């Protein structure tokens, strides 16, 4: 052995001793297990806080023989006790033949959390000493499972989902989607058109900070085969499920799927009036066309007459008081109308009246929609 090689080996030995001494002096090192290089920062405390519904609970279990004797028939068992069940998370239920001094038995357990409330991880170890004595000990680790706060606000065709991060660390929102029921088609309204691909309204980095709330918007439209059945859609309250996927600040993936979201069944009354076509922007004092859809939601046939009443800004064109004819229960008709506005700005379309001649009952429709009225000329000419 030459001098240089001897110096290198001596230096490595010094480094090893220094590292060992540093590990012994480190206040986070577990006493008696310095060689494992396992500090208390990586040791599971008895009560380690919160995990959130949909996340995967993972834990590294290490059983270390810190005695000077060989032990035999070592059985390590890890169970997770919830409020409703006890789950075995051990990868193997067979015993290890023997464990020498300063050796370990290692296992990694995983569990996708699907219940809220208190969870207890129970780690049990049984073994036999070299004198034939059978010994047994257990350790308990308790944690709480919470959930995201999800609120919904719905009307006829739109759903707003408010998702709040009630954890203490930022989360990356990987996916938030709505899975509609069989009667609906859904359109996500959470992107802004930009080139070929839409850009998220929340930016490129979709982080949700602690206690922050984010609104996701979806448009629900009845499928064609159900849209014509006013009575069927009127009674529908289930609209779909939210599927939420996120990652924690350590990259761990979590997933939560809500139960069926419900809406209040819309009270259309006897007649439902909806707009099939209307322009977004129109010129001042220039006629434009709209198309209304009238649906008989009652259980009787109606004989309808349409009346158009002018407002301060909206003026109807055509004959008021004309007959629309008979409309059977559940049936619909399209009503094209022409109007113009005499005032600039965002104007509300109002003044439509439908009268059922059978019962002499009049249905009034105001604030049907809004349209932006602009002046096509210069400011001086307007």
Automatic annotation (TrEMBL):
Can you give the residue ranges of the Trafficking protein particle complex subunit 13 C-terminal domain?
279-373
Protein name as it appears in the record:
Trafficking protein particle complex subunit 13
List, for all copies, the residue spans of the domain called Trafficking protein particle complex subunit 13 middle. 146-266
- Family per similarity comment: Belongs to the TRAPPC13 family.
Q: What does the record note on quaternary structure? A: Part of the multisubunit TRAPP (transport protein particle) complex.
A GO CC term?
A: TRAPPIII protein complex
| Pfam families (alphabetical) | TRAPPC13_C (PF23643), TRAPPC13_M (PF23647), TRAPPC13_N (PF06159)
Q: Which InterPro entries match?
A: TRAPPC13, TRAPPC13_C, TRAPPC13_M, TRAPPC13_N
Where does the record place the Trafficking protein particle complex subunit 13 N-terminal domain? 14-145
């Amino acid at each position: 052995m030459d001098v240089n090689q001897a110096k290198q080996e001596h230096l490595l030995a010094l480094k090893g001793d220094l590292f060992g001494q540093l590990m012994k002096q480190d206040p986070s090192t577990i006493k008696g297990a310095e060689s494992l290089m396992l500090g208390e920062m990586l040791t599971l405390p008895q009560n380690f806080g919160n995990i959130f519904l949909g996340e995967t609970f993972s834990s590294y279990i290490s059983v270390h023989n810190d005695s000077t004797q060989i032990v035999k028939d070592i059985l390590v068992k890890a169970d997770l006790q919830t409020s409703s069940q006890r789950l075995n998370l051990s990868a193997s239920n067979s015993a290890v033949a023997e464990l020498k001094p300063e050796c370990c038995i290692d296992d990694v357990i995983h569990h996708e959390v699907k219940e809220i409330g208190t969870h207890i991880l129970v780690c049990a170890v049984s073994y036999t000493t070299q004198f034939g004595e059978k010994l047994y000990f257990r350790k308990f680790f308790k944690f709480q499972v919470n959930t995201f706060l999800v609120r919904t606000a719905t009307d006829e065709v739109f759903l707003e989902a408010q998702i709040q991060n009630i954890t203490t660390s930022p989360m990356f929102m990987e996916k938030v989607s709505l899975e509609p029921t069989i009667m609906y088609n859904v359109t996500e309204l959470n992107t802004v058109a930009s080139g070929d691909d839409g850009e998220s309204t929340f930016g490129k980095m979709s982080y949700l900070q602690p206690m922050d709330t984010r609104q996701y918007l979806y448009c629900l439209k009845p499928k064609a085969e159900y849209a014509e059945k006013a009575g069927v859609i009127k009674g529908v309250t289930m609209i779909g499920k939210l599927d939420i996927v996120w990652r924690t600040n350590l990259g761990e993936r979590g997933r939560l799927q809500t139960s069926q979201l419900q809406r209040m069944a819309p009270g259309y009354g006897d007649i439902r009036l909806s707009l099939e076509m209307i322009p977004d922007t129109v010129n001042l004092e220039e006629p434009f066309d709209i198309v209304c859809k009238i649906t008989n939601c009652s259980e009787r046939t109606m004989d309808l007459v349409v009346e158009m009443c002018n407002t301060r800004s909206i003026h109807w064109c055509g004959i008021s008081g004309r007959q629309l004819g008979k409309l059977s229960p559940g049936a619909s008709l399209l009503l094209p109308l022409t109007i113009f506005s005499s005032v600039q700005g965002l104007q509300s379309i109002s003044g439509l009246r439908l009268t059922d001649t059978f019962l002499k009952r009049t249905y009034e429709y105001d604030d049907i929609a809004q349209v932006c009225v602009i002046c096509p000329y210069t400011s001086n000419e307007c």
